[in-house]
Amino acid sequence: MRDVAIVGVSQTKFGELWDKSFRDLVVEAGVEAINDANMSGDKLDAMYIGNMSGGLFVGQEHIGSLIAEHSGLTPIPFTRVEAACASGGLAFRQAIMAVASGYYDNVMAAGVEKMTDVVDATPAIAAAADREWEAQQGVTFPSLYAMMARRHMYEYGTTREQIAGFAVNGHKNGALNPKAQFQREISVDAVLNSTKVASPLNILDCSPVSDGASAVIVCPAEDAKKYSDTPIYVKASTQASDTIALHSRKSLTQLNATITASRKAYDIAGLEAKDMDIAEVHDCFSINGLIAIEDLGFFEKGKGGQAIEEGLIARNSQISVNTSGGLKARGHPLGATGIAQVAEVTWQLRGDADKRQVDGAENGITHNVGGTGGTVAIQILSRNN
Amino acid sequence: MRDVAIVGVSQTKFGELWDKSFRDLVVEAGVEAINDANMSGDKLDAMYIGNMSGGLFVGQEHIGSLIAEHSGLTPIPFTRVEAACASGGLAFRQAIMAVASGYYDNVMAAGVEKMTDVVDATPAIAAAADREWEAQQGVTFPSLYAMMARRHMYEYGTTREQIAGFAVNGHKNGALNPKAQFQREISVDAVLNSTKVASPLNILDCSPVSDGASAVIVCPAEDAKKYSDTPIYVKASTQASDTIALHSRKSLTQLNATITASRKAYDIAGLEAKDMDIAEVHDCFSINGLIAIEDLGFFEKGKGGQAIEEGLIARNSQISVNTSGGLKARGHPLGATGIAQVAEVTWQLRGDADKRQVDGAENGITHNVGGTGGTVAIQILSRNN
After folding, report:
1. How far is the C-alpha of B327 from the C-alpha of B340, rounded, in Å?
2. A122-205+235-382 architecture in CATH?
3. Which of B:160-199 have CB within 8 Å of A?
4. CB–CB contact B77 A135 (8 Å)
5. Is CATH 3.10.310.50 the right assignment for the domain spanning B4-119+210-226?
6. For a FRET experiment, which of A6, A61, A180, B226 has its CA 20 to 30 Å from that of B196?
C-alpha cells in the first residue's frame, strides 16, 4: 500500500451563491486546487466528487460526467460518491485508496452542493434520514438532534449555555475566515435568544443552507515534493457505519461510528487523541460538535460541555476545534463539507491559515458525519511523513 | 497492488416487484451472494452500493447507512457510488480498489434500483443527461439514442432490421434466464411493428423500467479458494468519461469512453478483443448494443449491423453477447445493471449458467454505460489467474 500526501487544496466562498451554478462551483474549486498544487489539469489521473443530492436539489445525477465535461478533463474517470453530509469525506477516502492501490497517481477529490436552487431544502436534507421510518413520519434533522441534546442534558447535566458555546466558538473562528458564510462573532445570549427551531435548539445552533465546493489533490507521498514544498501526509483514513434511524440505537448521546472510526484511525496513525493539535468536527448542530469532542477522545463522555465552557476548544487552547468556523459559521454545503475540513486542516498544518493560524500545529483530524451518525469518515493528517 | 477475484455473485429477479422495497432488494441480493461465497456476513470488511437515483425514485439518499442497518452489518464502511446507469460498474471498481490497495479483504459490491414507485420514471432517468442543456429542453433518452441510430444508419447503411436484431438476440437468451424480466423470444417483425417511441426506435428497442438488485463479493486472489472452488479473476477494471451532453461530441456513432476504457482494459489484461468468449454489453437501447460491439473491437466500425444479421453475436457463435438477455430482456434497474453483468459473466465462466451456458468460456467482458456514454466502466474477467 502506497503512502499518500495532499499537495493542493481549495475552497470556494460558502454562502448563498445566486450567481454560481452547481457545475461552476466544482470547476472553480478544481482549478484553484490545481493551481495550489502547481500542477496542470492534464496531470490528473482521476477525480472523485462528493455530493449528497444533486438529484433533489438541482435535478442532476451523473455528476461525474457533468464535471468531466465542464472541467475539460475527459476521458479520465470521474466518480461521484454519496453518504449524505459525509459524501465529501468518503470521496476523499476513495481518492486515497485509488492512489494507495497504485491504480492512479494524481487524484482530485472534490465536494459540492448547491442547496439554494429549491424553495425548501428540507425534503432533500431529510433524504439523509430513514425515509420510511423517520422522514415520512415528519421527523426533521433539527428535531433528531434536539432529542440528542435533551438526552445529553438529562444524562450529564450539560447546560443549554454549554451547547450554545460550541456555536460561539465556531463563529469566533469564522469571523477570521474570508471564505466563511458568516464572518461575525455571536454570543451565548444571542444563541439562547434566537428563533426556536426544535427545542432546545435555536436557529443559531443550526448550520445554514449553503452553496459551495472544495477540492483536494492527493498523490503518492514519494512524489509529493514535486508539487508542494509542504505536503501534508495522510496518516489514516477510516470510515464506519451505524443504523440510519436514530431510534435503532442504544444511545442518543454518542455516535458509535465516530468512536469506531476514530479509534481505528488513531491506531493506524500510531497517534492518540492527545496528539491532535487541531480538529475539524461535524457541528451540523451545536450539540453534534459537543458530542464529537467527547467521542473523538478529546474529553471524557459527559464533560464536553464543561470543556467548551472552560475555553478548552478555543484556538491555541487544549485543542483548536473548528478553526475554519465549522459547519455553523463556514457554512455547510452538504457534499462539500468533508473536503473543506481537509482543506482547513491542510492550511493550518502548512501554516497558511492567516489570521486564524494555530501556533505550531503538527497533527490534525477531520470528522465528517452523515445523517445522525449513520456514516462517519475520519482523516488524520500530519506535517510529518 | 493485490490481484482480486470474485468468490460470490447473486441477482434478484428483475421486473416490476411491487412486493419488495428498495432496502429489501439489496438485502436479498446481499444474502444470496454471501451464501454463494460460502461466507458469513461477519467476514465482510466493507460494502459499495451502486445506485443512480434513490433520491428521485424513492426519496432516499444516504443509501450506505440505510443498507448497513437493514443488512445488520454495522459498523463496517458502506459507500454509495453513482454514475447514472454505470453506477454498478463503478461500485464494482471501487470494491476492487479497496481490495487491491490492501485497505480491505472481503468486499461486497451491490447495485440496486427501485424504479416503479413513481408514476413516471422519465424525470429521474433524465437526470442522467445534462439537466440544463438537454433534459430541461425536452430531450429524453430514447430521443438521444434515436439520433445516434439515425446517424449510424446514414453513415454506415445500417438497416432498421439489423438494429432490431440486437433486441431479438437479447430476448432469445433472456427466454432461458429465470431471473430475466422478459422470458420470451421476440422477432424482428415484432420490434418493427411495436409502438413507436422516438423514430426510428420502437418500444421493443428500449430496455424496460425495472426493480432489482445484484451483488458480487471480491477478495484477494490468493484467498479466493477459501470461498470458491471456481473463483473468477479480475484481469482488468477500467473507466473513462466523456461529455455528459451528446451535442458536445464529435461523433454520434461511437462512444469514445468505451473505446478508451476497453483499449486500456485489453492492455492491462494482456488480452485482445478476439480473446473474449462472452460479453455483457449495455443495450439500454438496441442501437447502443450495436455500437458497443463495434467500439469494443469485436467488429469493425459500421459492420455491427451486418454481424448481428449474420448471427455472429448469438450464443456459441463468434462472440456470445448478452447471454443474460441484456438490459432489454433481463431488465434494467439502473444501478443494478453493472453488477448483474458481472454476475452473468461469472456464472458463465464458472459453468453455472444452466440452459443459457456458453461452451467452454474462458474470458469475458462487461460494458456498463452511464447516460449516452458520459461514463463507461469495463471489467475483464477470466477463469485463469
Report:
1. 10
2. 3-Layer(aba) Sandwich (3.40)
3. none
4. no
5. no
6. A61
